[in-house]
Write a structure and sequence with these properties.
Number of strands: 11
Shape: elongated
Length: 122
Amino acid sequence: QVQLVESGGGLVQAGGSLRLSCAASGVIFSINAMGWYRQVPGKQRELVAAITSAGSTNYADSVKGRFTISRGNDKNTMYLQMSSLKPEDTAVYYCNADVRLSISAREALNYWGQGTQVTVSS
């Protein structure tokens, strides 16, 4: 099985910064795209940022210029550097990954982490 574990969430004042990490472990041949999503109670989970195995990135308009997504050299870790945080960034942040379990796997399987809470106070 594959596990995604997020860390780095917490409470921060508006204007501050946090760095989220996601570590993938288990039976992994390769990881294609990875992404950060967030969700607040009563709303749908939304994409914050995504990154491909080649390093191409895309961001939600609401975080462009403030958040930076990256992957570690081993390609099984992912980070989200969040700066100039706003109260509206408050949410549970989830790690997501498309994982190929073996060289013979024809398709990647999608996995989610358990989430980490980010709270931005005004």
